[in-house]
Design brief:
- The chain contains 3 helices and 5 strands.
- By secondary structure, it is an alpha+beta fold.
- The protein has a domain of 62 residues.
- A hairpin with a 2-residue loop joins strand 2 and strand 3.
- 8% of the residues are buried.
- Keywords: Membrane, Transmembrane, Transmembrane helix.
Length: 101
């Protein structure tokens, strides 16, 4: 199948409207800048679905926050079996980032 025939048979099932796209990009850029200032710090993160993680910010790149997670209530130490656990989180899905002392 040629490339042109595969693109002509494609059907868009979703496309973000321009105001929404600009809003998501703005939030992503603001969070990226904020998170980069706190690399190496311990935080608690909550996403829009209510999931909560604690860990240390490793980095942020292309809309993703990389969080080295710590064991939470009853979960085993992640390093005991697999080494450090790095959790990639999408920046524009984050609701709260709290610095922990």
């Amino acid at each position: 199948m040629s490339e042109s025939s595969s693109t002509t048979s494609a059907r868009v099932v979703y496309q973000a409207n321009q105001p929404m796209l600009q809003s998501v990009q703005s939030v992503r850029n603001m969070l990226h800048h904020t998170v980069r200032q706190h690399v190496g710090k311990k935080v608690q993160v909550q996403n829009i679905d209510g999931q909560v993680w604690e860990g240390v910010i490793i980095s942020a790149d292309r809309g993703i926050l990389y969080l080295q997670v710590t064991p939470m209530h009853g979960y085993p130490e992640p390093r005991a079996l697999f080494g450090p656990t790095i959790l990639p989180l999408v920046l524009y899905e984050l609701l709260v980032i709290t610095l922990l002392m």
